[in-house]
Amino acid sequence: MNLNWFLLLFVCFIGQSSEEQRQVDEVKIGAIFSFGTTNGKVARIAMEAAVQDVNSDTTLLDGRKLALTLHDSNYSGFLGIIGALQFMETDTVAVIGPQSSVMAHALSHLANELHVPLLSFTALDPTLSPLQYPYFIQTAPSDLFLMTAVADVISYFQYREVIAIFSDDDQGRNSIAALGDKLVEKLCKISFKAILPPEPMSSRDLIVAELLKVKSIESRVIVLHTLSITGLRVFEVAQELGMMTSEYVWIATSWLSSVLDSTSVSTKVASSIQGALTLRSHTPDSQKKRAFVSRWNKLSNGSIGLNAYGLYAYDTVWMIAYAVEEFLDHGGKISYSNDSNLDSFAGETMNLAALSIFDGGKQLLSNILKTNMTGVSGPIAFKPDRSMFRPSFDILNVVGKGWLRQIGYWCNYSGLSVVPPESLYAKPANRSSSTQRLDQVIWPGQTKIRPRGWVFPDNGRPLRIGVPRRVGFRAFVSEKEGSGVVQGYCIDVFLAALKCLSYPVPHQFIIFGDGHKNPSYTQLVNMITAHEFDAAVGDITIVTNRTKVLDFSQPYIESGLVVVVHVKKMRSIAWAFLRPFTPLAWGVIAAFCLVVGTVVWILEHKFNDEFRGPPKKQVVTILWFSFSTIFGAPRENTVSTLGRIVLLIWLFVILIITSSYTASLTSFLTVQQLASSIQGIESLVTSNDAIGYQVGSFAENYLFEEVNIAKSRLVPLGSPEEYADALEQGRVAAVVDERPYVDQFLSTYCGFQKVGPEFTKSGWGFAFPRDSPLAIDMSTAILQLSENGELEKIHKKWLNRKVCGGQSSEADSEQLQLKSFWGLFLICGVTCCFALLVYFCFMLRQFKRHFPESTQCSTSTRTRISHSIRLRKFLSFVDEKAEISANRLKRKRMEMENLSTS
To answer: Which cysteine pairs are joined by S-S bonds (predicted)?
Structure first.
């Protein structure tokens, strides 16, 4: 009996020792997932394969083995919490999961308290901050990067408004909020949010109700961010409601690629998702990845396909293994201590006191964050903010029977591209719009034509377009008498722009105004914000206050405020013919006439009899010759070469001067006979005169608010006739109006003109509600009309550009200044100086030949001859007629020959 008891106690002792030894040799990790989901199934197989591979490596963990405990939360947050509590009671060093962000927010508090790292590759809520949850680590790219990629795709295709359909849980709400922030950076926005209950509470009826709301909204770009079951159901309902046509753009987040990578979908589901875009976490090709993919069918027994989350699950296990190994290598011990905060629960039925703090949790967390390895999903490392290093995504297009076609990539480094991100890391980062690129997309409806991305709301009525009923300047916009039909320049531009659109725009014009005076354009545009009109077409000026509440198309005509005044003929004066040139210019012209006449006389005097005679006659000849050149070639002939050269240059100068004089005098006697005391807005402001403005125009507010002109000085005018009467009768000193109206007024009424420059710069455009996509398309159409010349044709049809005779936009023209001709005078002066220099050199040479004794006598003789005598001889020689000089030289030569003979 005693022996039997001894044997029994020995066996129990041996068994207990073996159990304790086994526990010492194991490193426990847990995993919390809903293993009935696609990602849960894939993650389970991948994690078990990773544990097997880790344990087969005897060099890891100092001979210890990983022990993975799985807990199925089965879509229940409560069961997820229970599973986590169970792990904390069994000395677990780390937990993989949870699958959803809702559970991550709750379990992270438990991990913080007990220092057990929580690693998840599916709970990617961007609000899971490491500051709030230091023991929670996302081992896959956060949804912040996913939504950044979605925003870049939307911006790439030039969409401005999107509809977000998402599950009403933490990850859905917070991820869509992140999408909204990223879209704002791209000048886009979420125009409507369709919220669905989270799985498994999302029913078909609720989905139908939300999609009917979506269908009634004008935006047709839809971002679907849900879990797989709800997401596929949304696509099925959307197809039944006719929402998978070529009008729509569907962008599903990474849930759709995970489903299609791992499971086969029915024919009905496959047809409902045709043309959708989706994203997948990018995992670069490597030997490790190819080896793991080749093992997958054996690991899964062909039950499910591998997706990106399976790769992250496999790598997450290895991250824990490497971190634990480093922890053990540095002398760390896996030990636990009681949590003093739970002492009050000791002895309770719940046994919360059994929960203990992992003493080495902080060090293990630090080791995990220092991870720098290459796994099956690619390089793995964490930034200081705990985000994955260089997150990237595949951009996929669903074609065929649920087949995913790669159309590009997105990485946080360089944006969208058609080459893998890893090939771009060696190049400088470049996110300019010119480098963003994706391949051709096959959109819903099996079309390659990019959907417009919006339609008119499905309310069965055309657009209500307000049109002002003008009293004056009816060429711009007017109503045919009593017909209700509108016409004019602005209407033709609008209709021509509609023809350039690739879609019809049902519309009806609604006339605004009583017909007795021009309507208030401020009231007209305010009726758009009040939803009484869907748009406004007419001569509507784009001003700052209006752009704050409305969107405008591209301006189709330039505008700006100008000043118009009544002008009077200046009283003619007797000396008006002198006005073309300034006094200085007249003086220089007269001086050059005398100079040129004198130079020609010097050059011709010795050889030309017409330039010889008594002194009085020579003076008269010089004066006559000088001023007769102004009216043409002079009567006197020039025989010397130098004289002809000087005369030719001077006649050219005179030609330019007389032509300029004629043109300037004509201008002074016609156009420039207008004058006014108002020279522009500055002189108008400083005066106390009354100022006219057009009724309904923004000019009234501008003059009162911007220029600070008292309202008592402002006189409303309604038509061109009133303009003319008020200005002629002196009731107003000037009229301030926009340039298109003024140009039309001046083409009809004479005796008025613009003074001063435009003092505002604006334009006319079509007004639409805020963020209306039609404003963008109409802007593009207006640019097209401008480029093909159609806009100019419409302008010529309606608006007369001919200015009334005698009108000028300038109040006065400047007199011709000397600086306008200084080049000509310089050429003429240089020519005269050169001719005189050559002439006197020639005369000096001839003088030496005629009077050699004057230059070849002895030094003593030259000293006795005074300089004045030599100068008189030289001047006498120059004044002497050429024939006499030639005869004297001939006689001297004969005397020299006779003397030498004797």
So the answer is: 750-804
- At 36-92, the pLDDT tens digits run 899 999 999 999 999 999 999 888 888 889 999 999 888 777 887 888 788 877 789
Express each pLDDT in 741-795 by its tens digit: 999 998 888 888 888 889 888 999 999 998 888 898 899 999 999 999 999 999 9
pLDDT tier at 18 (50, 70, 90 boundaries)? very low
Cα 260–Cα 266–Cα 270 angle in degrees, nearest 5: 60
* Residues 6+ away with beta carbon under 8 Å from 36: 72, 74, 75
- 690: CB partners within 8 A, 6+ apart: 713, 714, 715, 731, 732, 733
- Which segment, 248-262, 325-339, 658-672, is predicted with the most confidence on average? 248-262
Phi, psi torsion values for 766, nearest 5 degrees: -90, 135
Position of tokens 């001297």?
892
Lowest mean pLDDT, pick from 730-744, 776-790, 813-827:
813-827
Long-range CB pairs of 443-448 (<8 Å, 24+ gap) are: 443/246, 443/249, 443/275, 444/244, 444/245, 444/246, 444/248, 444/249, 444/250, 444/274, 444/275, 444/276, 445/244, 445/245, 445/246, 445/247, 445/275, 446/274, 446/275, 447/246, 447/275
DSSP letters spanning 311-365: HHHHHHHHHHHHHHHHHHHTT----EEE-GGGGGGTTSTT-GGG-EEETTHHHHH
Nearest to 564 by CA among 430, 722, 413, 420: 722
CB 20: neighbour CB atoms within 10 A? Answer: 10
Place of tokens 């490392």: 381
The strand ranges marked E within 219-352 are 221-225, 249-252, 277-281, 336-338
pLDDT at 673: 47
Residue 656 reports pLDDT greater than 60: yes
Give the CA angle between residues 839, 843, 845 to the nearest 5°: 120
Length of the chain as a residue count: 902
CA–CA separation, 496 vs 787, rounded Å? 13
Residue type at position 370? K
CA distances from 381 to 185, 360, 369, 374 (A): 28, 22, 8, 9
**C-alpha–C-alpha distance, residues 843 and 589, integer Å:** 30
Q: Answer yes or no: are the C-beta atoms of 597 and 623 closer than 8 Å.
A: yes
- pLDDT at position 639, please? 67
Quote the CA–CA distance of 325 and 630 in Å, as a whole number: 109
C-alpha neighbours within 13 Å on the C-beta side of residue 614: 2
Give the integer Cα–Cα distance in Å for 417 and 39.
28
Q: What single-letter DSSP state applies at residue 671?
A: G
Question: 263: burial class by Cβ within 10 Å (0-12, 13-18, 19+)?
Answer: middle
Contact 442, 690 (CB under 8 A): no
- Our measurement of the distance from residue 806's CA atom to the centroid of its chain's CA atoms, rounded to an integer in Å, reads 45
What per-residue confidence (pLDDT) applies to 11? 33
pLDDT in tens, 564-587: 998 865 555 666 667 777 788 778
pTM above 0.85, yes or no: no
**Helix-strand-coil split of the chain, %, nearest 5:** 50, 15, 35
Q: Give the integer Cα–Cα distance in Å for 182 and 193.
A: 16
How sure is the predictor about 640, in pLDDT bands with cuts at 50, 70 and 90? Answer: confident
Closest CA to 320 of 507, 95, 114: 95
For 684, the token pair is 């108008």
Residue in this structure with the two tokens 């999903």, named with its chain if needed: 377
DSSP 639: -
What residue ranges define each of the domains in the chain, with the CATH number in brackets? 26-140+292-380 (3.40.50.2300), 143-287+390-435 (3.40.50.2300), 463-559+763-799 (3.40.190.10), 576-670 (1.10.287.70), 675-755 (3.40.190.10)
Does residue 369 carry a pLDDT above 80?
A: yes
Are 80 and 323 a contacting pair, CB within 8 Å? Answer: no
